Amino acid sequence: MIDGSNPSPEPTPWWARSATELAAAISAGEVTSRAVVESFLGRVERINPVVNAATVVFPEQALDEADKADKMLASGGDVGPLHGVPFSVKENIDLTWSPSTSGVAAFQGPPPPEDDVLVTRMRAVGAIPIIRTNMPDLGMRWHTDNALFGETLNPWDPSRSCGGSSGGEAVAIATGMSPVGLGNDYGGSLRLPAFAAGICALRPTLGRVPLYRPGPTPPIPLTGQLFAVQGPMGRTVDDVATAFGVIQGPDLDDPWTSPVPWSDAYAGPRRVAVVTNPADGGIDPDIAAVVRRAAGVLATAGWDVEEVEPPRIADAALFWRQMSTSELESDLFNPDGPIFGLLSEGARRYMSDNIAATETVDLLGFNHAIAQRLAIGAAWRRFQARYPVVLGPVSTQQMFGKEFDLTGPEATTEQWHAHRLLVTVNLLGLPSLAIPLGVSAAGLPEGVQLIGPAFGEAACLAAGRDIEAAVGRGSLAEPAGA
What share of the chain in percent tops pLDDT 70? Predict the structure, then answer.
């Protein structure tokens, strides 16, 4: 007898599942860590030649670690929340399996002597590095390209930028080459690529996650200490929350880290300030509509939503640009210094144009900006006592063309202006969650950011979970030609 019923749907492949789903399946004995790692390695082999997101693949080491994870589970040993789950690591985060090049050919050399503390913490709970991911030279472009590894393509539209500087990380996760990964954010480098790729990324509060490690390289300059943080990326809010819970916490080697207790539970006021046109500087109508749609979702979920803008966004964005560009001009990107000549042509062009377009400041001007940072931070602190979550765009424009930032000084200003709310968060050291809201009719990911008060990651995650529950998790991208 022929069964005329519809056949059972094909099971979701392991590479298409979230990190928390994978961890639960491995711990329950539904699948081995080796089978999961093999599934992701197969996906990398098929997809990476098209998008160029992974710079190094670790098949032997990852499978060996997977076998160890399976043996530990079989022996009844204690397992962590990501036991046996693969993860990816950005090129500027130390992993002893390969050099930390930061996308610069001259930095190819011996692997670092020890893992970054974030990698150490991920591996301590059973997670397994599987790939390294691409970035622009030293992370200093909003697009991912360099002379060492080449350009990473946006899997949704290869004519548009995939963002930077954690562009390889975002594309790897969006295309199913990794379920969760590690990046960093100096000027939106976690959230902008997440917006471009349609995934989640959590930029933690300054001091929540270790950044600095003593070593042979020079200490981090001041804007790097104030603006940069490391954080997780993933396709779901639970994935970034789980990874964040693993990597957060003080470290003896980083004096910026604070021993603030972490809890994923949020019991604070459920009030949201909605920003649809930051500093009245203009916004793409479609992006403004997405912000309002997210506001409607939160209102339906019981949040008290009000369209009101936090203080001094334009000033904050300007001070971020002046401080970062002035410091880079005198340090890493000084044409007479030791680093400038090591950079790719694209990185040199971008930084030269950005410097030309920026009103850089001397020491007195830099000190003024530092003082204003304190005043703006105080105003935001008062504002966020009433509105713990600020909902707004990641960028006020759709993702630019992949070489837009190399078309002259005016382009660098237009790009910075579109990212004014993005970099305000960096100036103030606040937490922010980038979260997708599906894919537009034009085939591009849509998303917003949720900004919390200092050490208020739980507020961002709570609002993010309500959005995700209504609109669904980030969509997997199937790049053309794969």
Answer: 98
Maximum separation of any 2 CA atoms in the chain, in Å: 87
Cis peptide before 165 (omega within 30 of 0): yes
- For the CA atoms of 204, 208, 213, 219, what is the dihedral angle to 10 degrees? 70
Confidence at residue 335, expressed as pLDDT on a 0 to 100 scale: 73
DSSP states of 116-143 as a string?
-HHHHHHHHTT-EEEEEE--SGGG-SSS
* 189 noted as active-site residue: yes
pLDDT digits (tens, 9 = 90+) for 56-69: 999 999 999 999 99
Would you list the domain boundaries of the chain?
136-471
Which token pair is 403?
A: 């070489």
The order of strands in the sheet holding 445-451 is: 54-57, 128-133, 86-90, 180-185, 229-234, 200-203, 432-439, 445-451, 389-392, 271-274, 304-307
Per-residue pLDDT reduced to its tens digit, 215-258: 777 789 999 999 999 999 999 999 999 999 999 999 999 999 99
Amino acid code (one letter) for 35: A
Fold of domain 136-471: Amidase signature (AS) enzymes (3.90.1300)
- For residue 77, is pLDDT > 50? yes
Chain centroid offset of residue 264 CA: 19
* For residues 27-48, average pLDDT: 98
What's the pLDDT score for residue 69? 98
Average pLDDT of the chain to the nearest whole number: 96
How far is Cα 84 from Cα 79, in angstroms, rounded to an integer?
A: 9
Closest listed residue to residue 81, CA positions, set 242, 264, 275, 261: 242
Please name the amino acid found at residue 420. R
Beta strands at 180-185 and 128-133: parallel, antiparallel or unpaired: unpaired
**CA proximity to 32, closest of 10, 54, 65, 80:** 65
Catalytic residue among 18, 39, 88, 90: 90
CB 139 within 8 A of CB 102: yes
Is the pTM above the cut of 0.90?
yes
Residue tagged active-site, from 18, 161, 166, 189: 189
Told to judge if 165 belongs to the known catalytic residues of this protein, a careful annotator would answer yes
Q: What is the DSSP letter of 404?
A: G
Q: What is the Cα–Cα distance from 276 to 360, expressed in whole angstroms?
A: 29
Handedness of CA 468, 469, 471, 477 (dihedral sign): positive
Q: What is the pLDDT of residues 248-294, one digit of tens each?
A: 999 999 999 999 999 999 999 999 999 999 999 999 999 999 999 99
